[in-house]
Specification:
It is a single chain. The chain is an alpha+beta fold and about 180 residues long. A hairpin with a 2-residue loop joins strand 1 and strand 2. Helix 2 packs across helix 3 and helix 5 packs across helix 7. The protein is elongated, with a radius of gyration of 19 Å.
Length: about 180
């Protein structure tokens, strides 16, 4: 049996690791670094979640791992403070392109343009620059067009644990996901 003091110490270690990590950390990675069984690492994460419940930070399960992040209710304040890495919001066309890739991935430029009914070159380039999408391969067809998929940054940006957390397809469902993006 593990004492609450030991779990508390593991939780402080998890907090330190998540603070310095630049991406979500899978539970098995936490367990390996802590030199602890996965169930104990999970218990430490849960202890940390409880300890942070009244603070401005939280542990978020996202993209197959855990990350330390600010609470959603402080997003506007944090955004103003940081003045955003990319000051401009995503355009309507970029959001449409991103939604098509998210729901249809992997998707080619042709797939996207067929659905949108207009060119998406500029939008795809902006989404690649922001690391919200990436090239995931090439379709085995004439011309071998590039296939695009979403990235881990996309998952973190929208707070998704997996693609199955995407809201139902349809105009309002996608809009729910895109509204917080501002």
């Amino acid at each position: 049996m593990v004492s609450s003091a030991e779990i508390g110490e593991l939780a402080r270690s998890v907090e330190s690791l998540l603070f310095v990590a630049d991406r979500p950390v899978p539970l098995d990675r936490l367990a390996a670094v802590l030199d602890a069984p996965a169930d104990r690492a999970r218990e430490a994460v849960e202890h940390l979640e409880t300890r942070l419940a009244d603070g401005g930070l939280q542990v978020q399960a996202v993209a197959g791992g855990y990350q330390l992040c600010t609470r959603p209710e402080h997003a506007d304040l944090v955004r103003r403070f940081l003045q955003c890495e990319h000051g401009e919001s995503l355009s309507k066309g970029a959001l449409e392109t991103l939604a098509i890739i998210a729901y249809r991935q992997p998707a080619t430029r042709g797939d996207i343009e067929q659905i949108r009914g207009s060119s998406s070159d500029w939008h795809i380039e902006r989404l690649l620059e922001r690391h919200l999408i990436r090239v995931v391969g090439r379709r085995e067809t004439v011309g071998r067009p590039m296939l695009f998929g979403t990235t881990e940054r996309f998952m973190r940006y929208f707070g998704l644990r997996s693609l199955s957390d995407l809201p139902p397809a349809g105009e309002r469902g996608v809009q729910v996901m895109l509204d917080p993006a501002g």
